[in-house]
Amino acid sequence: MKSDFHLHKLVRIVRWCLVLVFACLWVLLWVAGAQAAELSNDTLTFRLQVSPEGIPIIKEVVWRTTHQIVFRDMGTPEGLDNWVPPSLIPTTLTTPMAWKIQVGEDQTTATATRELAHQMSLTWILDLPKRGQLFRLRVRLTNRGQQAQSVDWFPAWSANWNTGDQSQWARWWQALQYDRIEQPLPFNRATLLGSRGHSSDDAGGGVNPYWVVGGKARRLYFSLQWSGGWSVLLKRVNRGFNFTAYLPPEETRLLLEPGETIDGPALLVMPTAAAGDTTDRALWMRDRQALGQQLYTSPPPAFPLSYNTWYAARQRVNAGFLKRQIAALSPYGFDAFVIDAGWFGEGRWEAHQTKFSVGELAAMLAALKAKGIKPGLWTTPQYVTDATNTKGLPLEQPPLVNNFLGGYLADLSSPKYADYLTDHVQRLRKQYSIDYWKYDQPLFFQPTSAGKMKKVIGFQQALEAVRRANPDLVIENCYNGGRMLNEFTLLATQTSWLLDHSHRQKLTPQMNLRSTLNALEFVFPWAALRFTVKVDELNQNDDEETRLHCRSAMMGSWGLSTDLSAISERQRAIIVKEIAHYRRLNPLKSACLYDLRLPEDLAAVAGVTFYDRTQQHAGIVLFRWQRKGAFTQRLTLPKLKPGVTYKVVDADTKVETPASGATLIRNGVSIAFSSQRQSALIFIEPITPRPVP
Predict the structure, then answer these.
(1) Are 376 and 436 in contact (CB under 8 A)?
(2) By the 8 A CB rule, do 419 and 477 touch?
(3) pLDDT tens digits, residue range 277-316?
(4) For the chain, which terminus, N or C, has the lower number of CB atoms within 10 Å?
């Protein structure tokens, strides 16, 4: 009897335990369901949840048309460790709020917030545009307490994604050199990418803030909207990969005041179904450009032919030099005329008194504008003097002087800086009639009085304010030639210098080719600005050399910096022909659909084949790279339409050859290089059937 009693008691205990287990499971499922959310656009569906560790996650992403999984979350075993510094991790578990969905006109936004230590809170944010495959991830930190809080480092995003074993390799590009690096992702050993100081600085092996993770069938493209230094850790795991993007301590140095909120870098992500480099890249660029138009009202993409004074005259630019250039402009048809460093004097942003008479520079620029040419000026407004500090900006502490410019660096984190920069540009537009503005020179230094992160945000907010106030203005992003390329600067401006060179370094066609062709893997064609420099100092009777120098700079946006008044009639005729070719190529570039032959060490040739959106027109720009002597190079054109009949036109020899699309796809076109030929330009156009009489 006693044994039966104990047996019944044990059964009752087990029964109650099962009830409690099922009750707990039911509560967990109910909580998970309450915290779950779903959002979709025309291409992707996102299912959001909160992990058992209390981290808001993207549970899975699905292609809407095929219902196939793009990726699934594999858990967050590190919890908050990958999201906030240890000092902000609460000692007791806090429950995140459920994902909230807000539907906007252009995008849907999902947010989830969790309380941290010291009355701080972290908000996870997902932005999904209404169309396309691109989405944006970011986090927001808020100080709800009464005391200022220091933050040692700042997260961008962290996740473990199951991609079905499609995360076998990673690809990225070196800063300034633009050489592609592609390596297998090692298991359980992190690959560190990043830049210090500015987003694409070459110091310490820096890379551009763009990378790709892929396998045999799929790819994920990543980029950062952030102008300062950054880091990302990539690691392959079973069936997927792990990544953590963040601002390291030296790029953060954040003190968050009571009641203050700050957003970190936005991480842009786009999955593809691996249709190939050309197609995937085109989709990536088009979706990014569409997001830029949504975020920053700005002129549509364009390929102006610009003149810039820098390489031709450097700081010796004066009224006499400008008059000679303006008198020689007519045959070229320039769209923009930009006066670089050297135009202003001691008063800053006033024409140099010994170089220009009163009102002379303003009259020159107004006359250019009247002729339909956009006048442009180079300025460095972050460096102020007593005369130019019109808003009473606080200065960087300790004071930082730029001897090249003769000014002190302003505190970019000041709330006054956005108004100051907007007023600066508006004054230039009113006084000098400019429709083109180029900004340059260093912005961020270590140490910095208000912390690096706030400086970067101050700069970005100020540039965005300029863009909002000047939707028609062409803005050129320079900063020492390519050291601040990122998704913010590329989307908010129209064009960017890829590479600069010193007084002692000659800018060669090979430098143009290497930087442009590699950069076109992630930089928009219209944003990739390159220059043909000092062609007047070449052998002006060598037509082949002149063509090479011109073509090496026309694969993106093309600028000339040379003494136009010193160019012979013969050389001018060659340049004018190349300008016509440039304008013929430009409509093809805007589709972002192109095959690249990268300038690798042992490559015979390097170049690019552009296709228009209909894939019925193409243009090839091809260069001799390593091979010497005479040879013939064959290029296939896999993106043409097989059922269309084309004519293949060599722009140099004028030879026209008919060919079917199927033949050009399968066998390609043969391009003959004589021992003297350095470049080739080929146009492929459909033959329009003649109407029947």
Answers:
(1) yes
(2) no
(3) 999 999 999 999 999 999 998 888 999 999 999 999 999 9
(4) C
Q: What are the distances in angstroms from CA 79 to CA 48, 143, 149, 189, 265?
A: 17, 21, 22, 19, 20
Helical (H) or strand (E) element with 550: helix 543-551
Length of the chain: 693
Give the C-alpha separation, 523 to 510, whole Å.
Answer: 19
Helix (H, G, I), strand (E, B) or coil at 404: coil
User: Hey, which residues does 453 pair with through a beta bridge?
Assistant: none
Residue with tokens 């039966």: 4
Could you tell me the two tokens for 177? 């050199």
Closest by CA to 411, choosing from 369, 454, 370, is 454
Q: Tokens for 236, please give them.
A: 């392959």
Write down the residue that tokens 């409509």 correspond to. Answer: 587
Task: Map residue 662 onto helix, strand or coil.
Answer: helix
Distance, CA of 227 to CA of 260 (rounded, Å): 21
Distance CA 284, CA 546 (A): 35
State the Rg of the chain over Cα.
29
What domains are there in the chain, each with its CATH number?
36-76+88-295 (2.70.98.60), 305-445+460-590 (3.20.20.70), 595-686 (2.60.40.1180)
DSSP 137: E
